[in-house]
Amino acid sequence: xxxxxxxxxxxxxxxxxxxxxxxxxxxxxxxxxxxxxxxxxxxxxxxxxxxxxxxxxxxxxxxxxxxxxxxxxxxxxxxxxxxxxxxxxxxxxxxxxxxxxxxxxxxxxxxxxxxxxxxxxxxxxxxxxxxxxxxxxxxxxxxxxxxxxxxxxxxxxxxxxxxxxxxxxxxxxxxxxxxxxxxxxxxxxxxxxxxxxxxxxxxxxxxxxxxxxxxxxxxxxxxxxxxxxxxxxxxxxxxxxxxxxxxxxxxxxxxxxxxxxxxxxxxxxxxxxxx
Length: 275
What we know:
4 helices; 6 strands
């Protein structure tokens, strides 16, 4: 009996050891699960922290790119504005060159003929084509009467224009002072009735300081909204070339008439007397 009692006691002790081992194993498994869960949490936190860092870096990079785009856009806008300015200046210079070329051709035409009426016709064409005048007149100084006499016109009959004494009205004042007259805010809007005594533009025809006539403009074509800086330069150039051409052709015509008269007189003297 004592032997069986010892065996039972050892079996019970072994069972207790086994149970403690089983409980220890269970505890290990639970701790292991806790550790795995904790590791998973740490990995997830690390991954989230990494994503946030990447997100922050992406946001910084995006901000930097946006600033670069803004800077490039500003530079592009500035360059585009400069290009527009250059294009505008190019068009202005091109227009001025074309006008000067046209004036050169016109001045060549003026000085290539000596017929007075032909010179007047060319002057009228220049005023129409280069200046854009619709209604205007050309006055020349009569040295004998000291009056400005209308010799050619466009858009209005020549009979509508009267003579002007030196200093009389705008036309006479321009002839006396030798300075151009421009109506303030002159435009293409033609008045209902043209007042031949009050032109919108009046340009003296001068050879050095001697005024030989006046160009009086009363209205512009509808497509000509206003005068540009080029127009004012053309006025000055035209006045000088037209004055020279008109004066030269007038002298030539007078000399031709005198020569013809003298030649006729000589022919009469050479005729043999009748028997």
